[in-house]
Amino acid sequence: MASTLTGSLMKRGMEVATYARNGGEADGGEKQYELPLWGLFMLGATMMVAFIGMSMVEYTFGRIIPTLVMIESPPETISFEPVPTEDSDAPKKTPELEAETVKPKPITSSFRTTLQVLDSKGGFRARFRGVWVFFVSQIAFNFIVHTLLSLSSLLRFVAPIIASVALAQLSLAWTLIVISEPSPKTWFRRLPAKSTWKKVAIPTAVLAITQQLALQLPFYLAVGLGLTEHDPRQLANVGSRKTGMMLLSCLAVFASGLLVAFFLVIPANVTLVRVQASLLSDAEETIVPFDRSFNGKVIPEFVGGTGVIGMLDAWKTFDWSARVRLLKAYVKVLFLQIALYAVLVLAIFAQLFIIMGRDIQKLAPSEGGHPALI
């Protein structure tokens, strides 16, 4: 979501820059307003800060923290009995000492405690752990998808799935780097063995398929409901009854994507991450409590097992408290992104008012004129 919002804003910023560079001429050749160079620099700096901030929210809060939530095991219940102090002057009595039970909260129960753990493992840079392998995997993913689409547009649905499965080891490496203690090794030296690919290929494919369903189902539903046939600029001329039907159709499209994400994408993502985490080497420790045996479900290879958790067991061992914690984390990230976007919009309008004063009205859209900034 953050990348979409940021991309939209950067696109609008480039429109303003091009508009000013062309002497403030609209499409019809009408002379309007030319933004000063210092104003463009101010807006560009604001967009850059916004891009960095939203990228941090997307990566640290939207990826790293949920991954840690997915693998953190329930904290063990710690029982202890208070030790009585003997006082010779005190009257002798035998009070019954009851054992007190303390159940510590999970580290990932709040963003603050999770960030504290990350910072303790490498300072502020730890909030971007795994960023290089993530960056490389994104470049490779886009390259494979674009290459397949250049062969045939019919591969639009399967191209991302093929790319995800082909790069399953990079995804595995990212997860293992994120959840484990810092290592002096570079990320490419921490790539897992080639034999691990077949252990994560199927859950990777399942996640990729659910993600495509979450993207494609709302689109084709919108086409089926006729929403793509309407020109947004002509909505004011549509009758109230038809507007109501269109609103219900939009809600149905939104609900379809939300339901697929809730019931398919999130469980598939949790399953994949936990399968990946089960492949962590015994020589490495995790930064949050983690039950490597998954309640005894993982059988080591040296005793005849597979050494990896099954997909169904990976989801079943993810208890309800952790599921609620994960959903809360996603909701927090969503509101954090919305808040940042709102602050950015207000900042841009404030800066435009400083730059243009009353002339800010000239950036308003007109018939056949230049589009609005936001």
TrEMBL record:
TM stretches of this protein: 37-57, 131-151, 157-179, 200-223, 243-266, 333-356
Keywords attached to this entry: Membrane, Transmembrane, Transmembrane helix
The protein's name: Uncharacterized protein
Superkingdom, taxonomy of origin: Eukaryota
